[in-house]
Design goal:
mainly alpha, 3-stranded mixed sheet, 2 domains, globular
Amino acid sequence: MNYLINQLMGNKPPGWGLSRTAGRIIVFALVLLAAACASVPHTGRRQFNFISDSRLNALGLQAYKEVVEKEPVVKDKRLTEIVERVAKRVAEAAEAIDKPGFQWEVRLVDKDEPNAFCLPGGKIVVYSGILPYAKNEAGLAAIIGHEVAHAVARHGAERLSQALTLQGALTLGSEILKTKDGKLTSKARLILGALGLGATVGIVLPYSRVHEFEADRIGQLYMARAGYDPKESVRFWTRMSQIKKPPIPEWLSTHPADEERMRKLTESLRDALNYYEEAPAKFGHGSLL
C-alpha cells in the first residue's frame, strides 16, 4: 500500500501516465477504502471510519470537560451512588466483553430531560430527567449499556467521518472546540453533534436506525454481563415509548419505531440471557430509583 501511494503521489516510474492530481484522487479513494475496513462488534457490519481511536477519545474528553463545567450535578447522594455503581458495573462488563480500554467516568447532571450519553473514551453523562423512566437499577443499566455501546461501536467516529467527508474535510485541525467571538465554530458544533451532543450545540446528528439497533443489542449484552436482568431492557423502552412524540412515520424517522425496537430486543434476549447466566454476580432489577 505504501509503495503504491508513493508511486501515485508522484514517484512513479515512466509510462504510468497519471498526473499528480489524478494520483491524489486515487490515494484519497484508497484511504477511504482502507478506513472502511473496520467492523462493529457482535454484528460484523463494516463501517466507514477514518478517525483514530486516540484522536476520537481526545475529542470525547474535551467535549466531556465542556459539559461538566457548565452543567450542575445532582446533590442527592443516594442517587449519585446508584448511578456510579451501575455505570461501573456496565463499564466493567464492556471491558470484559469487548475490551475498549476506556478511561471510564460518570456524571449525574441535574437536568429535567430524559437523556444520557457516553462520549468516546468512556465519559458517561446521565440526566436526572431520565431516572423516572429507568425506574430501577436494571432500567438504568439498559440506558447506560445502550450509550456505552454507541461509544464502543465507534458510532460517533462513523458519523463524524461521514460528515467530514461530505464537507470535503478529512482533517480535524488542532483546536477542535475553539470558539470565535465567544461561540463555538461551525466545525466544533459539527463534531460535538456527531459525538452525541447535538441538542446542546444546536446541530442534531441523530444516530441512524442501524446504530440504534446495534446499541440496543450490544447494550443488552453489557447490562446482562453486569448482572442485571436483560428483560428489563424491553420494559424500559416500553416506558420510554410513553413519552409524547410527534407522530412521525418510521420510514421518515432516523430512530426505530418503538414497536420494532422492542421486537428486536425481545428477539435478542436469548443471547443476553446467556451472558446473564455467566455474570460474576446477579442483581436482578437492583434498587428502585
